[in-house]
Amino acid sequence: MTISESTLRVNDARFREDYERLTLDGATPDGGLNRPALSEAHLAARETFRGMIRQRGLTIREDDAGNLSACHSPSSKTKPVLLLGSHLDSVANGGRFDGTLGIATAFEVIQVLREHYPDIPLEAIDFTDEEGTWVSLLGSRAASGQLTQKDLDHPRGDPEAFQRALEGAGLTSKGILSAARNSKDLHAYLELHIEQGTRLEKSQTDIGIVTGMVGIHMYLVTFGGQANHAGTTPMNERHDAALGASKFCLMVQETITKQFPDCVATVGRMNFSPGAFNIVAGQVTAFMELRTEDSGRAKQLQQALHKVAKHSAKEFDLNVNFQHLESVIERKMDPSIIEALESGALALGLTSRRLPSLAGHDAQSMALLCPSGLIFVPSVGGFSHSSREYTHWNDCVKGANVLLNAAKQLAASLK
Ligand code: HGY
Ligand code: MN
Ligand code: MN
To answer: Closest Cα to atom 6, ligand 1: which residue?
Structure first.
C-alpha cells in the first residue's frame, strides 16, 4: 500500500515528551494514575497543561464547567472551531493512558495543524470529570447543554463532598449549567482513546473506528434490614441487609447472562451501614450500572433487575429501594467523520475496523453539538481502569497520525 505524500506526521519526540509530562501528576508507584476529577492531583495536572499551553504559544480557554482548552485562535473569527479532546481526570487508581493519551494527541495535532492551516481555529479540550467521579461526562454534557440541576443535586459521590470539590476548583452549579456551547461555533469534534478491550489486539488491527457508544444507566439499590448485635443475635432472627444485597448481585449476573446477553451490568461498590465487624448490616446500598446500545433494552433490563431486587429482599425479609441516579444516552458517531478517519488510516497504510464502544466517552456528548468521531488504539491485554493499562508507543503514534490526517481533511474543508 503506497503511503500518499500529502499525509502529515506528528512530531514523535514532542508528542512523547508532552504525553509523559501529562502522566506525572497523580502517578502511582505501580505505574498507574490516581487523579479523580477535581482532586489535588487532577488540579495539578490541569496546571501542568496550562503551563504547556503557554510554553507552546497557544491560548488558554476555560469555561464555567472547568473544561480547559489549548487554542489556536486566528484573528479572523469567521470560521467554526475544529475541536479535539479527551480528559485528564482518571478513575481512582486508574491507568496512565485512559484520557491522558487523548489529551496529548489533541495537543500535538493542533500544534502540527496550525503550521499548515494558520487561519483555522483549532482547540484541544480537556473535559471535566469524564469518569464520573461526581457526575458522568460532566464537562462534555455541560458543554453540550445536557446537564440538569438534578444531575448536580444527585452526584455519584457525597453531595457535600461534591460541593467542596467544586469550590476547590472555583466552580459553581450555576456556572456549570451555563457552560453550553453553540453548535454553530463548532465544525467537528475528534477524539483518540485507548480501546480498553481486546478486539483490536486479537484481530491485530491498528485502529478502531468507533461507530457509536453504549448508553450507561446508573442506580442505587438499597436493602433495609435491622442493625443488631453480631454475637447475641441468632442467625435465624436476623434481618441482614448484607444477605439481600449479595443475593441481588448474584441474581444480576444470572439475569444478564441468561436473558440479556447483549448487555452488561455491574455492581462496582456497596456501602454497608453501620458497617462494623460486630454489627449485623442494617442497610446496604449497591451502586449498579447497566450498559446497552439500545434505550428500549435498558427499560426492559431495569424492570427485570427491579424485580430481582424485590425477590432478593423478600427472601431475607428486608425492604428495598431501587433508585435511578443518572443516564448517559447511547450515541452514534457521524458517518462523514467515520469515513474521514478511515481514509486517514488508509492514507497511512494502516488497518482499521469499525466497532461499537462499550465504554462511555466525551465524544458521545459532543455528537449532540457537531459531527463527532472517535478512534481507538489497541490496549495490551485489554486492561483499563487499572495500573496494568498499557498501549505500545508505536500504536499511540499510529493513532495520532490517523487523527492528524482526518483533522487535516476537516481543516481543508474549512479553507
Ligand atoms: O466508564 C466508562 O465507560 C469510561 O471509562 N468513563
Ligand atoms: Mn476515558
Ligand atoms: Mn475511563
So the answer is: 131
Q: Which ligand is nearest to the CA of 131?
A: 1
pTM for the complete prediction?
A: 0.89
Q: How far is CA 181 from CA 171, 326, 337, 387, in A?
A: 17, 22, 20, 35
Atom of ligand 1 nearest to the CA of 130: 6
Give 2's pLDDT tier (boundaries 50, 70, 90): very low
Nearest CA to ligand 1 atom 3: 359
CA distances from 203 to 1, 55, 199, 206, 355 (A): 19, 40, 6, 9, 12
Distance CA 194, CA 196 (A): 6
How many angstroms is it from 337 CA to the middle of ligand 2?
20
Rounded average pLDDT over 250-265? 96
Grid cell for residue 394: 508505536
pLDDT over 80 at 3, yes or no: no
| Closest atom of ligand 1 relative to the 216 alpha carbon | 3
Where does the pLDDT of residue 1 fall: very low under 50, low under 70, confident under 90, or very high at 90 and above? very low
- Give the ligand at the shortest distance from the Cα of 389: 3
Residue whose C-alpha is closest to residue 332's, from 210, 195, 191, 208: 210
CA 158 to chain centre: 20
pLDDT digits (tens, 9 = 90+) for 303-312: 999 999 999 9
Residues with CB under 6 A from ligand 1: 130-131, 359-360
Which-ligand-closest: CA of 216? 1
Cβ neighbours, 10 Å, residue 301: 24
Ligand 3 centre distance from Cα of residue 325 (Å): 19
- For residue 77, how far is its CA from the centre of ligand 2 (angstroms)? 31
Q: What is the CA radius of gyration of the chain?
A: 23
Q: Which atom of ligand 1 is nearest to the CA of 136?
A: 6
Atom of ligand 1 nearest to the CA of 131: 6
Structural element, H or E, at residue 290: strand 283-292
Name every residue whose Cβ is closer than 8 Å to that of residue 104 and which is 6 or more positions away in sequence.
15, 18, 19, 22
Residue count of the chain? 415
193 has which bridge partners? 376
